[in-house]
Amino acid sequence: MAFTERFSRTLFGGGARSTLGYAVFFNSDTSVQYVDGATKIFASAEGLAPRMTMALYPERMTVGSSDGPMLGDEGLRQMVLERVRGAGRFLGWNFG
Asked: Are 71 and 41 in contact (CB under 8 A)?
């Protein structure tokens, strides 16, 4: 039997929590915050028209804070991007 990932809305922060243990927060016009345990990754983003549409810039992901060091692990970057998009779709976001 395959495990199906499910999301729930976070109480605060405009985010979604996954049954896999991570959370994604869409509470900024310029970045998306991905949190998995003690790890925080910030993906650069830009709100677009129409409402609830966002451009993600995966080449600009930082660790720890929005001004932290660049994320250099390409595999981790792709996983975070996939998870951010999944959580965003759950919340009604479109990605351009």
From this structure: yes
Evaluate whether 40 touches 26 at the Cβ level (below 8 Å): no
13: Cβ contacts below 8 Å, ≥ 6 apart: 25, 27
Contact 67, 61 (CB under 8 A): no
List residues bridging with 64 in a β-sheet. Answer: none
Tokens of 93: 């976001």
pLDDT, tens only, 38-94: 999 999 999 998 889 999 999 999 999 999 999 999 999 999 999 999 999 999 999
Would you say 52 and 94 are in contact if contact means Cβ atoms under 8 Å apart?
Answer: yes
Distance between CA atoms of 17 and 11, rounded to whole angstroms? 10
